[in-house]
Specification:
Blueprint lengths: L3 H10 L4 E5 L2 E4 H15 L9 E5 L4 H12 L3 E4 L6 H10 L4 E4 L7 E4 L2 E5 L13 E7 L7 E6 H15 L6 E4 L8 H9 L3 E4 L5 H10 L4 E4 L1 H8 L12 E4 L6 H11 L3 E7 L3 E5 L19 E5 L7 E6 L6 E3 L2 E3 H4 L5 E9 L5 E6 L4 E3 L2 E3 L1 H8 L5 E11 L3 E10 L5 H11 L8 E4 L18 E2 L2
Parallel strand pairs: 1-11, 3-4, 3-5, 10-11, 10-12, 12-13, 13-14, 24-27, 25-26
Antiparallel strand pairs: 1-2, 5-7, 6-7, 8-9, 9-18, 14-15, 16-17, 17-20, 18-19, 20-21, 22-23, 24-25
Length: about 475
């Protein structure tokens, strides 16, 4: 199958329904299909080989969506290139992924104008990419289960299986309007493609301040929010009094919620925040729609098509989260490692540490590679970072372990300050919110926290000797 089949079928049922709304300009399903066909015909001469890999370097907008489906029509493999990448990083990805070309909103040397503000630049990799006979739709770079970047390769059938599994729980329909604010280069398949396959309308939020955002939700009668804790924190602090009367589902993604934010948002709008477990390798595995209030810190039970187990749990039940189900990745591309090699028993090791309660709800604690071993106890950096980041003087933080001759490791923290604040002030703040063993032994004030270039995740350092 080809994912454009889903868009075409939707357009046949609801041709005049708005598929996307950007600013004041809705585009109907039938017009979106026509746009993808036009772009595909203009791209086709540059990509004579099925499966050609094309980088897509565009901001959120109708062109990003239309070009993705246009490339699939050819058919070509879409490689999204995040807007925050530097020129050096883009060149590195292009070489590593053996891109046959890339699409940009501004001209580059050797580019051809395909449509207004759409340019194609052919590239000539010395060795053509090998898709190993797979009908690839999408390759996205991710730090995956390690800090090393790798390309996650997904076939059209694989993505389709994810959509079917996810919608058993999400129940997206033509009655839904999604207010969208996350970068499409990082979130697209079990979101944008799912919504369009079900006849929903997607409103592309142009302003992320609370008042314009809430105004857009109310104007377009938004029913679903899909955003990061950062966005929900901004909305929870809004004093305008604007409600969210139509919203039936508010999903929080990218990082864990705090109890305070979950409570503040629900008190402000009467809508619980729902956490989920999803990854580019997996699709959407869990979403906590059944008990988001009492189990605010859980990502929920596995979706009906998935199973989750905990590998080698410790006495408290924490171990590595293993997942099996439909739509798991087809391969890593760099170096190439196929599904059979990655998952010989059909289970994918996520690298996340978590536990399952008696009713099957999954609670995540942190990354296996980041856990700090303190005198035989596991300490999760993410928990401590969440506390430090609540301090008004802290912009962001990174917690790690440093080797200790007797304790194994001790906790250290790096903090980027937004104002005045000292180590003793931070230590006292931690004493009020953390048990004694989790309070950092040392606080280092730094200018930046290193992050991976493509995914923006915190780079976790190797354990270093304690100072």
């Amino acid at each position: 199958m080809n994912l454009t089949d889903l868009l075409d079928e939707t357009a046949s049922h609801w041709p005049q329904k708005a598929a996307l709304i950007e600013g004041e300009n809705p585009i109907s399903y039938v017009d979106l299909v026509a746009l993808t066909q036009t772009l595909a015909s203009r791209l086709q001469p540059f990509l004579p080989s099925p499966g050609s890999r094309v980088g897509l370097h565009f901001p959120n907008g109708v062109p990003f969506v239309a070009l993705t489906f246009a490339l699939w029509r050819i058919p070509a493999t879409v490689v999204p290139l995040p807007m925050e990448c530097t020129a050096e990083e883009l060149a590195q990805i292009a070489a590593t992924m053996q891109l046959d070309g890339w699409l940009t909103a501004t001209p580059r040397p050797g580019s051809t104008l395909l449509a207004e503000n759409v340019y194609f630049t052919p590239l000539h990799p010395p060795i053509p990419a090998d898709n190993h006979g797979l009908n690839l739709a999408f390759i996205r770079f991710t730090s995956g289960t390690t800090s090393a970047r790798k390309g996650v390769a997904l076939c059209h059938d694989t993505v389709h299986a994810r959509l079917l599994a996810a919608n058993q729980e999400l129940q997206i329909s033509p009655r839904d309007t999604i207010i969208w604010c996350l970068p499409m280069a990082h979130h697209f398949l079990v979101t944008i493609v799912l919504y369009l396959s079900q006849g929903a309308t997607i409103v592309l939020a142009r302003h992320l301040l609370s008042r314009p955002f809430l105004t857009a939700v109310n104007r377009w009668q938004g029913t679903i929010l899909y955003a990061a804790p950062f966005h929900y924190s901004m909305l929870a602090g809004d004093l305008s009094g604007l409600p969210l009367p139509q919203v039936r589902l508010a999903v929080s993604t990218t990082c864990g919620l705090t109890r305070e934010l979950a409570g503040d948002f629900q008190r402000r709008f009467g809508v619980p925040l729902v956490q989920a477990l999803g990854a580019i390798e997996l699709g959407l595995v869990c979403v906590n729609v059944s008990d988001p209030v009492q189990r605010w810190d859980s990502v929920g039970r596995p979706l009906p098509s998935f199973a989750v187990r905990i590998h080698k749990p410790d006495p408290e039940g924490y171990g590595e989260v293993m997942v099996t189900g439909p739509g798991l990745l087809d391969a890593y591309t760099h170096p190439w490692m196929g599904r059979e090699e990655l998952m010989p028993d059909g289970w994918f090791a996520t690298g996340d540490l978590g536990r399952l309660d008696a009713e099957g709800y999954l609670f995540l604690a942190g990354r296996k590679s980041a856990v700090i071993n303190l005198a035989g106890r596991k300490v999760f950096p993410e928990e401590i970072e969440a506390v430090l980041n609540r301090h008004p003087a802290v912009r962001e933080s990174r917690v790690s372990g440093a080797t200790h001759p007797h304790l194994g490791e001790v906790v250290e923290a790096e903090v980027v300050l937004r104002g005045a604040g000292g180590a003793e002030d931070l230590r006292e703040f931690c004493r009020r919110h953390l048990s004694a063993d989790k309070i950092p032994n040392v606080f280092h004030v730094v200018k930046i926290i290193p992050k991976t270039a493509v995914t923006g995740k915190i780079c976790r350092p190797q354990v270093t000797p304690a100072k």
